[in-house]
Each structure stands twice: as structure tokens, then as C-alpha cells.
């Protein structure tokens, strides 16, 4: 069995590391993190700082980016590819993922999440705790659906968009890139790029 390196040992990294442990595919898991005041998190050692990534390639075959910021996560997954790391897909055993869906490398599916048939999830997405993605959805790279967010069927979400806790997207909606859907929002119409929407129904905020 190979070793896994997780970039980022914050709160998101804690959840990611537990999912990796539950999958039982790696003989050893370590973190990279830039903080000076920690040497381990949840009993998992800190192997070095993010800048140490290239030097650790000979020891760690697999690496995963556990950074919550969507833009930063995509930047680091690109670096993993450039350095030749294998990038896994991490799926919590309690999630329900259709065999007829597709998920790309660097994505994490957390506890209680549901992904239905013919949905496509891009690279380095976060499908957070108890969020649901219905049939025929397309989530582009770097999307984060927060805990308890729900997407109806045939929803498209652009790169790096963040769907916050408890937000609901009705069927047949297109959401642009780099947008934020606020907590508890109910989206009933298409959303453009780079906006914040909030409310019930959701409207663009200045």
C-alpha cells in the first residue's frame, strides 16, 4: 500500500484525513501545513510545509489538496499534477454515489452526501456533509457544495462557485463561475458569473 500526503491540516483537512483513513487504501497518511505551532493533527504527523511538496515526491505516491478556498485548491492540484503525484478521489463510506455518475480526481465526497445518476463532478470539488446532487447535474472544477446544500436535477455550476450551507437550487438552473450562493438561499433562476446571491428567492446583492 502507498502513502498519502494531504495538503492542509485545518478543519477541512481533518475531515478529509478521516475519510482517507476510512477508505483503508493507504498504509500511511501525513499532512503538509505551513503553521509553526503544530506537529500533528488528530494523531497524523505534519511532514513539512507546502513548499516541501517536491522533495516528498519520492516518499509519497499520492497527494490530495485539503484547502477550503476554491481558487487556492485548484492552484495546488495543478502543482500536484506537475510534480507527478497520483491524485485520488476520496469518498466517505456513508455517502451514496451512483455508479452512473462521474467524479474527477481531487474531489472529496463527505459523509451522508448523495450523488445521483448521470451527474458529472469536476476536479477538486468539495461535496460536503449531507449535500445532495440530483440527476444530470454538471459541477465544473473547484465547486464547493456546503453541508446541507441541495441541487435539483439538471443543474450546472461553473468553476470555483461556492454553494453555502443549506442553499437550495431548483431543477434546470445554470450558475456561473466564481459566484457565491449564500446560506439558506433558494435559487429559482439562472445566476451569472462572479456575483453573490441571497434570499428566498435568491437575488443578486450589490
Question: How would you describe the overall organization of this protein?
Answer:
The protein is α/β, with parallel strands linked by helices and about 210 residues long. The chain folds into 2 domains: about 1-90, Rossmann fold (3-Layer(aba) Sandwich); about 90-190, UDP N-Acetylglucosamine Acyltransferase, domain 1. Helices cover about 15% and strands about 30% of the residues. The chain has helices at about 10-25, 70-80, and strands spanning about 1-5, 25-30, 40, 45-50, 60-65, 90, 95, 100-105, 110, 115, 120, 125, 130-135, 140, 145, 150, 155, 160-165, 170, 175, 180, 185, 195-200, 205. Strands 6-9-12-15-18-21-23-24 form an 8-stranded mixed sheet, covered by helices on one side. Strands 7-10-13-16-19-22 form a 6-stranded parallel sheet, with no helix packed on it. The chain has a 5-stranded mixed sheet with strand order 3-4-2-1-5. A hairpin with a 2-residue loop joins β3 (about 40) and β4 (about 45-50). The longest helix has 13 residues, at about 10-25. The chain starts with a strand and ends with a strand.
Topology:
Elements: E1 2-7, H1 11-23, E2 26-32, E3 40-41, E4 44-48, E5 62-65, H2 70-82, E6 90-91, E7 96-97, E8 102-103, E9 108-109, E10 114-115, E11 120-121, E12 126-127, E13 132-133, E14 138-139, E15 144-145, E16 150-151, E17 156-157, E18 162-163, E19 168-169, E20 174-175, E21 180-181, E22 186-187, E23 196-198, E24 203-205
Parallel strand pairs: 1-2, 1-5, 2-4, 6-9, 7-10, 8-11, 9-12, 10-13, 11-14, 12-15, 13-16, 14-17, 15-18, 16-19, 17-20, 18-21, 19-22, 21-23
Antiparallel strand pairs: 3-4, 23-24
Amino acid at each position: 500500500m502507498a502513502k498519502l500526503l494531504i495538503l492542509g491540516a485545518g478543519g477541512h483537512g481533518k475531515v478529509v484525513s478521516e475519510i482517507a483513513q476510512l477508505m483503508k487504501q493507504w498504509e500511511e497518511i501525513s499532512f503538509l501545513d505551513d503553521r509553526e505551532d503544530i506537529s500533528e493533527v488528530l494523531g497524523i504527523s505534519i511532514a513539512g510545509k507546502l513548499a516541501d511538496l517536491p522533495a516528498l515526491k519520492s516518499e509519497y505516491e499520492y497527494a490530495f489538496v485539503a484547502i477550503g478556498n476554491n481558487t487556492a485548491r485548484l492552484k495546488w492540484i495543478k502543482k500536484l499534477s506537475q510534480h507527478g503525484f497520483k491524485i485520488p478521489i476520496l469518498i466517505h463510506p456513508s455517502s451514496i454515489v451512483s455508479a452512473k455518475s462521474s467524479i474527477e480526481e481531487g474531489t472529496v465526497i463527505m459523509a451522508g452526501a448523495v450523488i445521483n445518476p448521470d451527474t458529472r463532478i469536476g476536479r477538486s470539488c468539495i461535496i460536503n456533509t449531507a449535500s445532495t446532487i440530483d440527476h444530470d447535474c454538471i459541477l465544473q472544477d473547484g465547486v464547493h457544495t456546503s453541508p446541507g446544500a441541495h441541487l435539483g436535477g439538471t443543474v450546472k455550476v461553473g468553476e470555483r462557485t461556492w454553494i453555502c450551507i443549506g442553499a437550495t437550487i431548483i431543477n434546470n438552473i445554470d450558475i456561473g463561475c466564481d459566484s457565491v450562493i449564500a446560506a439558506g438561499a433558494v435559487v429559482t433562476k439562472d445566476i451569472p458569473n462572479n456575483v453573490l446571491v441571497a434570499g428566498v428567492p435568491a437575488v443578486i446583492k450589490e
